Amino acid sequence: MEKRYTTWNDYLRQKYGGKVCKLPIDAGFDCPNRDGTVAYGGCTFCTVSGSGDMILEPEAPIDVQMTAEIEKYHLKWPSATKYFAYFQNFTNTHGPVQLLRERFEPALSFKPKNGEIVGIAIGTRPDCLPEETIGYLAEIQARGFEVWLDLGLQTTFQETSDKINRAHDYATYVDAVERLRARNLNACVHLINGLPGETHDMMLENVRRIVADTDIQGIKLHLLHLMRKTAMVRDYHAGDVRLLGMDEYVQLVCDQLEMIPGNIVIHRLTGDAPRDLLIGPMWSLKKWEVLNAVDDEMARRGSVQGLKTTQPYVLANRVELTHV
Question: In the predicted model, what is the mean pLDDT of residues 122-146?
Fold first, then answer.
């Protein structure tokens, strides 16, 4: 079934002419929300790996990690020759520019046996993007690499942000996107559906605000995964966290897709979690069933991404993305 939204995979295929794989990397960064720079304890949903639970060899040198990831991907896509270095877990701009250079440059200069590194995706927080860091990222892009900043926002509501110990406000996010776009760097914002206390309408409002307030090029919609050994488990047992049902989540995501302009790349509609760490929702382990259900519901509605905006997705005529 044809997707009714602009997928990350299709965007990359259109731009590079084939499958492009993202290679998740643990570069040993910490988080300012853990080390006391802005707070201690981290976000209440975050595991000890800082959302890097699926990385194959987190303790290995970067080139070894990248080689292992390529070998894994080649089992499914043996013809893939283009790759993104994906600095995934914790806050990958938390440090001086010299430290960033020491950790990013080995990935950018890595030479796969058959292929090339075409870009870099960097998971970070909006409060860890000083001007000198943005300048370095613009320098990377000027060298011919495609650069994406994955900005963990999670919610636009301050009361929710306080509950999950996010330790930055919405205004900081808006400012970060403005400064990234001033250097023509791509911003992909992360939102989590199902955070404590947020209603269906609030989760729709999260999308409405980021689309209205910031010039983003991508979005990741995550389902809240309740993970073992996180602070949120305590809130769950206290009755302050309600896990979403699958049909509820599918309906919500389809409602959100209709609000997102068709030229914004949808990097993700749900997430992955290790079975041994996941408390719930357990239905989320069947990722392809969830994605297929979204496709089915969008088709049932006769809907597309951006239906409720002035820039809807065009079926059978891929949207020409001009922002990169």
Answer: 98
pLDDT score of 51: 53
- 218-223 and 265-268 as β-strands: parallel, antiparallel, unpaired? parallel
The model's pTM: 0.93
Give the mean model confidence (pLDDT) for residues 266-289: 93
Residue labelled with tokens 């729709």: 204
Proportion of the chain above pLDDT 90, given as a percent:
89
Write out the chain in H/E/C secondary structure: CCCCCCEHHHHHHHHHCCCEEEEEECCCCCCCCCECCCCECCCCCCCCCCCCCCCCCCCCCHHHHHHHHHHHHHHHCCCCCEEEEEECCCCCCCCCHHHHHHHHHHHHCCCCCCCEEEEEEEEECHHHCCHHHHHHHHHHHHCCCEEEEEEEEECCCHHHHHHCCCCCCHHHHHHHHHHHHHCCCEEEEEEEECCCCCCHHHHHHHHHHHHHHCCCCEEEEEECCEECCCCHHHHHHCCCCCCCCHHHHHHHHHHHHCCCCCCCEEEECCCCCCCCCEEECHHHHCHHHHHHHHHHHHHHHCCCCCCCCCCCCCCCCCCCCCCC
Q: What pLDDT, in 10s, does the model give residues 22-74?
A: 999 999 999 999 999 999 999 999 887 545 455 566 678 999 999 999 999 99
Residue 307 has pLDDT above 50, yes or no: yes
Taking alpha carbons only, the member of 185, 179, 255, 191 closest to residue 217 is: 185
Q: Residue 227's closest CA among 281, 148, 166?
A: 281
